[in-house]
Amino acid sequence: MPKVSKKQHNIDAVVIGGVGFNPDDYDFRTIKVNTPYGTVKVKTGNIAHRSRILELALIQRHANNDTSSGAEHLPPHKLNYRAYVWAVRSLGANRVIATNSVGTMGSHPRGSFLVADDFIDLTRSRVNTFYDDRTVHVDMTKPYCPEISDSLLNSLENNQMEPFKGVYVCTEGPRFETAAEIRMLGTFGDVVGMTGLPEVVLARELGLCYASLCIITNQACGLAGNKLTADEVVEMLEMKKETLRTILLDAIISLPAHSNCGCKDAIKGATI
Asked: What is the CATH number of the domain that holds 79?
C-alpha cells in the first residue's frame, strides 16, 4: 500500500454523496487531490449551522471522473472508490458520512432515512482493498463508526423522523435487481443499494470513522408492482435535499471534538 501524505485542513467531516448530491449547491472552493489511484475533485468550505461554523469537504462519487471517457455520471461499478477514500485521508480528515440512495426491502416509508449498522457485499468486479502487497484481514465486527452512527440516529430523532437502522445489501449494478433477487435479499437485509461497497471497507482499512446515511427513495424492485425507474429515485432525492442537509449538519455538530471509538485501530493485529 502506498504511503498516505496528509494535509492538515482542520476538516470537521467529509460528506461523500451519490445520485442527487450536487456540491455546486454549496459556495465552496474546488481543490484537486492527487492520489496513487487518480485525481479527486473535492469541494471545501465553511457552513454556519446553529451558531457553529463547520469546515466540510464534499466529494461527489459519480462525477469524480479523471478518465478520458467523458461520462458525466459514472455507473456504480466503475467508480474509483480507492481514489476518493484515499483523498479523505490525504486531506487530514478522519470522519466520513456517506449518503446512499437505497430501495427498501421492508416497510420503511419512501423519503425516510436509515443508518446502516452492517452490510452484505454482493459486488463482483470492484477492487476492494488497498493491500495488494500483503495480507491484511481488517476487522469488520463493527464496520460503521458507532459514534457517528449514534449521532445520525439522534439527529433523525431530534428532527422528528423515525431513526431506522439496519443491514445494507450492496449489489453490483448498474441494473436494478430482479424481484426474485429482492425476495432472497430481503431475508437477510433491510435496504439495497449499489455504492456502499467497497467504500466502507476501504475506509476501515485506513482507520477512518465512516458511517452511512441511507435515503429510502423507493420500494425495491418487484415490491411495488410497477416498473422501477431512475427518475423516481432522483425525484425523491431532490425532495429530501434540505432535510438531508439538516440531519447531516446536526449530526456533525453533536460529535465530540475527538473520536472516542476504535475505528483508527481497525487494522491492528490484522497483518499476516
From this structure: 3.40.50.1580
